[in-house]
Amino acid sequence: MVSPIGKMEHQDFGPPWLIPMLKADYFATCRFHGDANKSECNLFCLDCCGDALCSYCLTHHKDHRVVQIRRSSYHNVVRVNEIQRFLDITCVQTYIINSAKIVFLNERPQPRPGKGVTNHCEICGRSLVDAFRFCSLGCKLGGMKRGDRELSFTQRMKHCRDSYEPDEPVTPKKVRKPHVFNQLIDTSMFQYNLYARNGNSEMSCSSTSGDETTHNMSPGTPPISNHRNSSRRKGIPRRAPF
């Protein structure tokens, strides 16, 4: 005869490691490394689906998918950035503890409902924010057992354009040369034409090839007018009297 838990594992109630992860005994002393320091079992291997592990047990689970279980108010939690890679946590309320977003593993019944709260967990009755239906992964599993076909732990591909996140930052196209530089070119050419009309065609200008223009461009020296014939000769300077 198959047990009810065995029937649940064969049904579409999430990955096969979900129920063992929820029911594992965490923060107990490891039976294999009990004499070592920090041998509490706060890890779970998703590939082996066994008991909780300590940090020394990881040598036998190389290249396996392992998540770390933490505690908050005597309840087991897991960080969202760890579990979200393997499980869809939609409809489960998340919390921020120690600057990290977490989600609770099992239900947390609330003896007294909060005042003015209109939304509660559909399984254990804990007060929730209006955007969520369950307070933990175990409560969402309980909602799936009731026959809610809209619930699922299977991750879905997001095809929405707004949810697209590029792997690499988008780099803008090559920026054109500033408008001030173009004005400098126009001003230099205008001065060149002006000097050419006055009979002075000397202009120091670099050559251009294609789209590349050398920045070493300077306007030519304006023509120096001859003041010998047009101006009177200055007198001899005299020293001021003492």
Main beta-sheet strand count, sense and barrel state = 5 strands, antiparallel
Helix count, per DSSP?
Answer: 5
What proportion of the residues is helical, as a percent range?
10-25%
Tell me which oligomeric state these chains represent: single chain
Q: How large, in whole angstroms, is the Cα Rg?
A: 39 Å
Rounded mean pLDDT is 76
Termini separation (Å)?
132 Å
Question: Pairing-aware structural class of the strands and helices?
Answer: alpha+beta
SSE sequence, one letter per element: HHEEEHEEHH
Description:
This protein has a five-stranded antiparallel β-sheet with strand order 1-2-3-5-4. The chain has helices at residues 4-10, 18-23, 80-83, 137-145, 179-197; strands spanning 43-45, 66-72, 75-79, 95-97, 100-104. The longest helix is centred in the C-terminal third of the chain and has 19 residues, at 179-197. The chain starts with a helix and ends in a 45-residue tail after the last helix. The chain has 242 residues and is α+β, with helices and mostly antiparallel strands. The protein is elongated and about 115 Å long.
Secondary-structure topology with pairs:
Elements: H1 4-10, H2 18-23, E1 43-45, E2 66-72, E3 75-79, H3 80-83, E4 95-97, E5 100-104, H4 137-145, H5 179-197
Antiparallel strand pairs: 1-2, 2-3, 3-5, 4-5
Brief account:
The protein has 242 residues and is of the alpha+beta class. Helices cover 19% and strands 10% of the residues. The model is unreliable at 1-10, 159-178 and 201-215 (pLDDT under 50).
